[in-house]
Specification:
about 140 residues, 6 helices, mainly alpha
């Protein structure tokens, strides 16, 4: 099976991740609470910005590419449902059991703040679902 990659959908999914991160971790949304619960100061988040942004962009691209690929496979099996529905279902299967629970497990072992953990886990689940919807809408 060959995948007919929709690069516009993949790039839009990656952009969605970047935008949701900027909004979610903005100091007036969850950023200030997250920094405080993680024991960080604003200046702590400003060091190594280039490296952090490179990893963030790379992660967004890989994640979007993977979500599109998995949704494409799901769509080839579940042909009675729309690509949007299959993309959203893929996002659910990736976000909650894989990403959300993995973050929760690691943060529990590392004794991280419950507040920081909840903010991060909910961010990941929300972002993956948003990316999936954007990919599903554009690729449909």
């Amino acid at each position: 099976m060959e995948i007919d990659f929709n690069w516009v959908a993949i790039l839009a999914g990656a952009a969605t991740a970047m935008i949701s991160g900027m909004l979610w971790y903005h100091p007036k949304v969850f950023g200030a609470k997250w920094m405080k619960s993680a024991g960080l100061k604003q200046k702590d988040t400003e060091t190594d910005q280039g490296k952090a942004m490179f990893i963030t962009i790379l992660r967004a691209l890989f994640l979007s590419f993977t979500l599109f690929s998995l949704a494409y496979f799901a769509n080839s099996f579940y042909t009675d449902q729309s690509f949007l529905f299959n993309a959203f279902r893929t996002g659910l299967f990736v976000s909650i059991p894989v990403v959300g629970m993995t973050l929760l497990m690691h943060d529990t072992f590392e004794k991280r703040s419950n507040i920081a953990t909840n903010i991060n886990v909910l961010y990941e689940i929300t972002t993956i679902l948003l990316m999936s919807v954007v990919i599903g809408l554009i690729a449909a």
